[in-house]
Every structure is written in C-alpha cells, then in structure tokens.
Amino acid sequence: MPAAVAAASGSLAAGGCGAAGPSSWTRSLERALEEAAASGSLSLSGRKLRDYPRGSAAGHDLSDTTQADLSRNRLSEVPPEACLFVSLESLNLYQNCIRYIPEAILNLQSLTFLNISRNQLSTLPVHLCNLPLKVLIASNNKLVSIPEEIGHLRHLMELDVSCNEIQTVPPQIGNLNSLRDLNIRRNHLVHLPEELAELPLIRLDFSCNKITTIPVCYRNLRHLQTITLDNNPLQSPPAQICIKGKIHIFKYLNMEACKVVPDLPDYDRRPIGFGSCHEDLYSSRPYGALDSGFNSVDSGDKRWSGNEPTDEFSDLPLRVAEITKEQRLRRESHYQEHRGSSLVTNGGAEQDLDQIDFIDSCATEEEEEEVRQAKCPESDSLSTQFMTYIEQRRICHEVTLPFF
Q: Could you tell me if 88 and 109 are in contact, meaning their C-beta atoms sit under 8 angstroms apart?
C-alpha cells in the first residue's frame, strides 16, 4: 500500500493534476501509452508534464513510434527518451519551456517535421541542420540569428522563424533548393538577402520588419503566389504600389531593372516571375513592351519601352512620290528628244502626244482628264504598264523594308 501511494504521488508531481485525482490522471496516461505502442503515434499533449513519464513508459514498447506530440506541457528540455525513437518522423514540442536541444537528436535520421515554436530558445542548434527536415517551425522564441549551416537542409520545404529577434538572414539560405514557404515576419530585419530570388518560393512573408527596399532580383521569383510585406518602412517599391498587390509590385521591379540595365534587349525586359500571370498581362502586347502598372483602371494600353517601334509604312507615300517624280523627269527628257527628231522628220509635233504618255504627279484632276482624252488606246496601255511598274516597285520596297 505505501508503494501505491508513492507511485500516485509521483504521478501527481509529474502531471500536476487537479481535482480529478491521481488515479484518473494515471489511467489517462496509461491509455495514451498503450495506444502509442499499438499505433506508433504518441500523444501526450496538454498534460502539464514537467518531465517525460519514464516510469509509466517503461512498461510499453515505443521503439516503433513515428509521431510524438509533447506540445503544451512544461518541459524544460527535449526528453532524451524521445531521441531514442529512431523511426520518429514527426516531433511536436510546441509551447513548452525548452531552452536547449541536445545533440542526441541526431539519432532521429527519419525526422522530417519538427515544431519547436513558443519555447525559450536563444539559438537554433547547428546539429538540427544535419537532419532530413522538410518542415522546421521555430517561431515565437528568442532567436537572434539563423546559423549559416541552415543551407545544409536541402530537403527543407517550409521554414518558419517568425516572431523572434533575428537581424540578418545568412546568404546560405539560397542553398535551400526545395524551400516553398518562408515566414520571417515580426523580426528585426533591415535587408532581404538577394539569394532568395533563386528559390522556388510560393509564399513569402517578411511583414513587420524594418525593410526599406525589395531587391530588384526578386522579380525572378517565378513561382511566387503570395507575398506579405505590410508594416515595413518600404521606399522601393513605394507604398502606393505595394497596396495594389503583387502584380504591381513585380511590374515596378521590372521597370527598376530596366533602369539599372539601360541596354537590356527588349526580350529581356519582359517580366520573369509569377508563372501564368504573364499570359494575362502581356498576351496582347508587343514582346518588348511593359505595362506601367500605375493605374490599372485605365483602359488605355500603357507602355514603357526603351525602343518604341516605328511605323514602317509612314514614309512610303513619300518614297513612291520620289520614284514617280524620277520617272516623270526621265520621260520628259525622252519626250523632248523625241519631239526634236519628230519636227525634223515629220514636220510636226502633234503626233507626239499620240505616242508619248506624259504623266505629271502634280497635275490637277481636270488637267489629267484633258490629257487622258487626248490619248490614244496605245497610250493607255503604256500608262497601264507604267503604273504596274510603280506598283511592283512599291511591293518590292515593302518586302525589303527593315522590321522594327
């Protein structure tokens, strides 16, 4: 009987149970351990545990545990027993009092999910970066930095370090080639690393920081669907652009990129990011043109381009007129020569009008009609041939014109 009382007292101290009594708490704990042994999922959430229940767990085989939920307790460290679950894939330590993560956690080489948010960690242990993590949640701690070794987490898809005291993000974060979701909101960041532009991010949240500029290279985030940047003293892009949403932000970044590289070819000025958004924005516009993005309610086609195309037919009438004038002068010269020879051989010049088709591009309609009435059928065919020649010259000129 004294042994039973002692066991009950130990459970009470560990669990901190209330009016329900130690026996009720013990039965609940036993059921949780039995279910864990059968299913491989250990759930000890919300039991106010200050330590791992070693005594109760000793009678159960938990070596095949794949999921462990120890959230909402009062643990001051990661239980060493949890580091012996070599098959563990998911470990939830949310809302405890953990200040330290032991190196023994490296035993968990199957661990892909780790939630250590709402604890009292001041540093992110380097040995965590040697685990095959896909999700790392370390929000609401006291972190002041992210280790450079973070770049070793090549399989990491989600990183949440929000609500800490982080001042800089190491450039090695650019090595996280699988990262899709990055949450660094509510920290002390002043600059954003340019290396993020090379990642396949879908969601980016850097709100509630001290960011003044979004790097121009972020326009390369071609997969990005959600960007949250409120509560930052942003100057580039300015606030009036940011409040219009991600499409306008990326238009602004593309325009800034064109200013930085003034000799950028037209095909490089087209935006890169945002996936399918580009077909909607640019399907009806020339490849080198960019929508200004400053007034989306306007129905006009606003363009910004360093090389606006010119109308290749704008000077065509002038060129045709020059050809016609050249032909007219040539025919006038021929007419004068023929007229002189006709005066000598035939003694008159009236027949010349029947043989020569004189075209004056500056003549009025009345004068043209008089000349037309004075022509014979042979001169009509000559005029038709001449106009055909002019039309062929115009078509040939259009084909050889350079395309702008």
A: no
CA dist., res. 20 & res. 79, Å (int): 26
pLDDT number for residue 391 = 72
- The answer for 278, left when phi > 0, alpha when psi is -120 to 50, beta otherwise, is alpha
Give ∠ CA 378-366-347 in degrees, rounded to 5: 45
Q: Quickly state the pLDDT bin for 246 (edges 50, 70, 90).
A: confident
**CA dist., res. 156 & res. 148, Å (int):** 15
The number of domains in the chain is 1
| Residue 270 resides in a domain | no
Q: What is the pTM of this model?
A: 0.62
In a domain, 207, yes or no: yes
DSSP 3-state assignment of 14? helix
Q: What is the pLDDT confidence band of residue 397, given thresholds at 50, 70 and 90?
A: low
CATH for 117: 3.80.10.10
The answer as to whether 36 is a domain residue is: yes
In a domain, 322, yes or no: no
SS3 230: coil
- Residues 269, 305: contact at Cβ < 8 Å? yes
| Mean pLDDT taken over the chain | 75
DSSP lists the bridge partners of residue 135 as 113, 158
Question: Facing residues of 228 across strands?
Answer: 205
Q: From CA 379, how far away is CA 346, in angstroms rounded?
A: 20
As a whole number of angstroms, the distance between CA 370 and CA 384 comes to: 17
Q: Do 270 and 287 form a contact (C-beta atoms < 8 A)?
A: yes
